[in-house]
Sequence to fold (256 residues):
Amino acid sequence: MNKLIVISTVVSSIVLAGCESTPEVKPRMARFDSPEVNSQPFHFNITAGSDSSNQIAINKNKKSERDNTLRFSAAMTLGKGFEARFVDNGENQVSLKYQMLGAPLEQKKTGNLSLAGSLGYIWAKRSESPTKQYNDWSMEQKSYDLSLIAGYRLNRQALLYGSVFYQDGDVDGKYYLFEHYDVEQNVTINEGCGWNKTCVESYFSDKGNAYGLSLALEYELLTWLAITGEVVHHRAEWFERTNNETGVHFNVEFRF
Fold:
């Protein structure tokens, strides 16, 4: 039994050494937030689409990368031009939008110029475990999102809109140690964590921001179904590094 424990510990140590990871922020880029809002309360929409990230690692030697994910959202009108929304895209976001100019969505008025503002709160928790058993690090990210959205209705089916947006937030995280036994050196590594347990090695934190532009074309196939294509340019500043990304996203919206 003791031999099995030693073997297991040695294997875990090798995996940990070979799969070192580093914390990274992954602000999502897709927007899909039109400036036309139904004027009456309790109108709903549910969407599913693509999303990408502007990824920056805390390790300056690691190249920033991108990943793609699915994006889901649900929104409900509150009346008087207000709409509340929840988004799940690897991050979680709640937001409140207000249409301050232009005809409401139900009129679909050709030539309509619309303007809306949105305030959102984003939060995400992330961790990495090279052995799928013990975390190497964990991190919590919180940000505020402010956007101004303008649109022009080409006809009853098509709406062209764009936005400028700004995000500001912070991250707090922990690096962990995993206690194990080095057979060759006959010593315990990271002693004090407790056998086969992790403990906090150190803490890290940072403040960052992101801003950018989006342009989207929405087309209503049916009264309850619309599709949207979007281009977003996103600039993120975290861990004393700046990274620019441009993403193309697609979305399907169901209206009730």
